[in-house]
Give the backbone structure.
Amino acid sequence: MKNLEKMGVQEMNSGDQSASNGGFFPLVILGVYISSKVMAGIIIGTFAVGTVAGVAIAASE
């Protein structure tokens, strides 16, 4: 702990800890969550279009 004190790191009290919003990592997690939902929608949409096109082609023959 003395090495950290030499570098100017201070211990946070409970009030400081509860006021902290977490920094950059919650934004990264939110971005991954949102982009995974978007990609899932794109994949499902592409599958649905391909299925409809396949059924339309099979019905026309």
User: Anything to note?
Assistant: The chain has a mean pLDDT of 85. Residues 22-61 form one domain. The longest helix spans residues 25-60.
